[in-house]
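S1.2 Input.
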Amino acid sequence: MIDGHAHLNEIEHIDAAVERAKSVGIRGIIAVGMDIDSNLKTLSLARLFPLFVHPSIGYHPWSITPEGIGENLAFIEANIGLSLAVGEVGLDYGAKAKKKLQQEVFGKILLIAQKHDKPVIIHSRYSHQRTFMMTREAGIRRAVFHWYSGPTDVLEGILENGYFISATPALAYSPFHQEAVRIAPIEQILVETDSPVIYEGKASEPADLVITIRELSGIKGIPPGDVARITAANTELFYRISVK
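S1.3 Output.
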């Protein structure tokens, strides 16, 4: 299994969490950043756990401030060669930053990703149509719409463009998330934990990827072992990595 999206910099006792992940069969983790501080920590964790933690640097819409934009975009541009992908980035119309400012920042980040041919990890809360349109119009070839729980008509466009969605432990209780993975072909689904997000009162960690696998297995009617194998292959293809 490969955890396709985790905020490892926010997890306490990371050594123990990594060991628990390995003990349940996880062979790789995509660690995502949200701003300069978390990006630096994510890059450091990738050095600490080589060939197991794969870093992605980003600028999350929750982190956007007018005075921080220039520095954060410059950091991504300067360190893109160290990063597997660009993310977590996107739009969140429930965030403090104004919609127009978020769109300007996301547009600039998409240009960086397109120029360097990097996959993009997209946050699209309350903004599914706009994030999809901007991603497609920017010419992004590889994108994953993280924890997709949006409208099915937008999902159809995402899938037709060859993009991916990701599944989380929220499959255990979220009807909108369940419907999305029911519609999407298993070949266009990545699995993740979004650790340390709290699900049903409990902070998650990468080892909880077994929950995502179990729930996805039930929805798809595919044995858990096959779900793990297929989604791991999807992740390797999407990120252009090989996990032993």
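S1.4 Remarks. The longest strand covers residues 85-92.
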